[in-house]
Amino acid sequence: MLTRTRAALAAALALVLCVLVAAPASATVTGPTSVIDQDPSVMTVGQALLVFAGIPLLVVALVWLLVSAPGWTRDGRPSDADAWTGDAVVVGGSTPEVRAGSQPAALDAAGTEEAAAEDAAETGGTSAQW
Amino acid sequence: MARAVDSADAATGLSFVVRVGVLDGGRAEAEALVASEADPHGTVLVAVDPLAKRLEIVTGRRAAAVLDDRTCALASLTMTTSFVAGDLVGGVCRGLQVLTDHGRAVVHRHLDTL
Fold it and tell me: pTM to 2 decimals?
């Protein structure tokens, strides 16, 4: 019994909603400003082009501008690498020679290139370029 | 950058060195710089040549046991990604963070209490 009542209530509610949604479609078109009554020859070719081609193109151009504009300002800003003067900067480490200059101090410190090469053979790491 | 280096030193027990400047000798010069350190086996050198757009990460023998080449490659990828965008300092700091995370000494708390 309760189930039937619920089903009836749901059906009635659905009917009311459908009527409310569809009601504007039954309105009488009488006004001179109605869309249906407009003369199709009012819009010229130029206006049609402006509306259906000009406005989309304008929107596309606006989106393109918004996407590209930050890149223009970023290109104009010098990067850290561009501003580099060539003097070596060392952070950390213990050898004063390494801190001071850009020349390899190890060759002198190790005595010979062979000694440095021996140490080098035991090293790991990686190389990269960008 | 100095703070990142100090943090990496403290977290891993290794000696991190960051060198930004011309590296004419390439890899060989970087390895020679590591050899000239007081503790070459525990040294990790991050050498950046901004003009040549070149990066070298050199690990000493003891450091290589903690930070393998794959980890260094991951850190170099992190760094070069930032370098491409022109962020030199940020790239070095982020790369050091990667190396620190992988080289951090594991704490065995259950053993520390014994």
Answer: 0.57
